[in-house]
Amino acid sequence: MKCNRKREPLRVGTVSRSVLACVCIAVVGVAYVWQKNQIYRLGGELKKREDDASAAVKRTTMLTAQLAQLKSPALLESRCQQYGLGLVAPREQQMVRLPEPGPEWDAKILTPASPKTAAANTGKKPVATTTRTAPRTLAKR
Amino acid sequence: MNGSHKTRAMIIVTSLSLLFTALCGRLIQLHVFRHSELSAEASRNREIVVQRHGRRGEIRDCNGYLLANSQSVRLVCADPSITASNNPAAIAAQLSPLLKMDVPALMTKLTGPGKYTRIKPKVDEETAQKIRALKLKGIIFEDQYLRAYPHGALASHVVGFVDGGHKGVQGIESSMNQHLEGVAGYEVIERDRKGREIRALRTEDIEPRDGYHVVLTLDQVIQHIAETELEKAMTEFRPQAGVIIISRPKTGEILAMSCRPTFDLNNAGAASADARRNRCISDVAEPGSTFKIVVCSGALNEKLIRLSDAFNCESGAWLYAGRILHDAHPYGTLTVEQILFKSSNIGAAKIAVLRLGPARLYEYIRRYGFGKKTGVDLPGEVSGIAHPLARWNPLSISRIPMGHEIAATPIQMLCAMNAICNGGKLMKPYLVKRVVDSTGRVIVEAAPQQVGQPISPTTTAAMTVALRRVTTPEGTAPKAAVDGYDAAGKTGTAQKVEGGQYVNKYYSSFIGYLPSENPELSILVSLDDPSGGAYYGGSVSGPVFQRVASKVVEYLGMLPQKTHPRQMVSAR
Question: Does residue A72 sit in the same domain as residue A114?
Fold first, then answer.
């Protein structure tokens, strides 16, 4: 069969549009794949972080129990005896007890008389005063 | 193109057309008509719903020290269909030192029938990681929770324990189960060929909520003191059982509750039911002379007697309703105060018979809460026995005042004593201070709860005057005196009933409080059938009270009254 079609020269515009279309399709495809890849990669990282966090929580609970065991009065007492630390409660004579101030004391300390009034009462120059909280008992543990 | 070629072409085109038409039909059938059915099946094959359990909450003491928590552990399993064909001897040799199991036992499991066998439960996370690092084929892990009790037997009857399903079956674990238990969540995930989750394809993720933490009124140091001293008493007096309860009378908070025999919470299954029973709330016994506080305070409250009123105690034997009532020691005339601190049965009976009368006595028994549960936050509490007035016999009015014909739990007796030292206010005993979530937000906060006012503050003051003398040399419990502090209390020595008969076995008890004017602590000590001769409450339980009280006041930093008579540092 004889070909009667006339060979036409390639048009730059057509070619460039085709190339552009191909490039666009390729870019979209690559971007899609890259994005999917990123999603899976980040998913993997997220999972790893979740596992790490879970492992940390598990370890914390285990260590909390261990700490509680180490702090138990029975263990501390046995260790004191084992190592002969001689740790005993202080005797009454060895203790200095500070009185626990009542509300009157708090009022006196927290709202002191004005420097001028104080100065007038004492006959001395007024000095800057600072507010301090009332001391609390040391007997509380 | 000739005719045969055209025919052939037509056949091929027609065949292809038919083929593609059939394919299209099939696709339409699968994707349109059976879409919902098949997509659901595909989802079932691909997606897995994973249940996630919330961690059970912790139990802590009043200072935040841990008493119980849940730890994640692993159940090591194997697929014998894989392990049997992958050098099981080598796998067993590698697992043996890590799991602390014999190689032959491991070999049996690794080469057994089926596709699933459990090798070892409760393997800690570190060991599991080591096994995982070995990359053994056919070895799999399952998540498990292990309830850990770091202090073993400390406060075992209060804390309680859980069953295999992590549900509380005793103690606080049971009564606070609804708070301790978390709320389960779930996630819908997809896995890859190796069974690993594809995180990006997780479609639903409902986080579980961890259980709330329960903070108790117990103080682990005070509990340790109670446990240690009770253990010493068990060695010294060899009783069948023993109980110590320490509470704060003003609020009803229980600071310590100890029972013997006891058990290790980490191995609760090995303990007998007898050892697991919380005797403080579930054992009833005739209280003995400690019950005299009820009749005396009742009569004082009704202004039927005064402390100085005298009663003839008949030199130790009084015939009433055809039966002779005895005193431990013969007494002549005693004042009400002396009846209390010398613990005269006849004196107490006469107060009830001659002054108070059965109706009022029964009313005070009920007012103090006998015959009904105290409502402490523990399961298994019993009501005790307080017969209604209609069931009393003629002797009852003379026997109940000395603690016979009535049965009470140790916690009921302590509550009654707390009312006497707390201005007559009967407080509900409680163990749960608050319930908090994992961030520390308070969910439930318990507050002291007054449940009655059996007697007036004036009566309590009069009672304290008499009860203070119990710990003096003229009283029944001089060994219960605490150096530097003014302790008050009442002894009790109750004969045990076995097979409906009184036998020569005794409950020895002492219930005391200190400082007597402004009590910070009340302590009950009760020993069931002490051996070795001594059985009186004053000589058996009194010294135990003294040792416990001395240590607790020292720990709490309470000022001795000798140096600062009216100044008390509030304990914590």
Answer: no
The reply to whether residue A61 touches residue B221, judged by beta carbons under 8 angstroms, is no
How distant, in Å, are the alpha carbons of B268, B405, B496 from that of B500?
Answer: 33, 12, 10
How does the average pLDDT of chain B come out, rounded? Answer: 90
Same domain, A74 and A103: no
Within a domain: A106: yes
Check CB contact of A139 with chain B, cutoff 8 Å: yes
Q: Containing domain of residue A131, as a range? A: 99-135
Q: Does A99 touch chain B (CB under 8 A)?
A: yes
Determine contact: B232 vs chain A, CB below 8 A: no
Q: How far is CA A47 from CA A44, A56, B144, B201, B302, in A?
A: 5, 14, 20, 11, 74
Question: Which chain A residues are within 8 Å of B220, Cβ to Cβ?
Answer: 72-73
Considering its fold, how many domains does chain A have in total?
A: 2
Could you check whether the bond before residue B261 is cis, i.e. omega within 30 degrees of 0? yes
Distance CA B427, CA B307 (A): 26
Q: Is the residue at B265 inside a domain?
A: yes
**Residue-wise pLDDT tens digits, A58-92:** 888 888 888 998 988 889 888 888 888 888 777 77
- The verdict on residue A92 lying in a domain is no
- Write down the pTM of the prediction: 0.81
Residue pLDDT, tens place only, B245-262: 999 999 999 999 999 999
Q: CATH number of the domain at B315, please.
A: 3.40.710.10
Would residue A6 count as lying in a domain? no
Which residues are CB-neighbours of B110 under 8 A, at least 6 positions away? B78, B80, B83, B84, B88, B91, B92, B117, B119, B138
Task: Enumerate residues 6+ apart whose C-beta is below 8 A from B342.
Answer: B329, B331, B334, B474, B475, B476
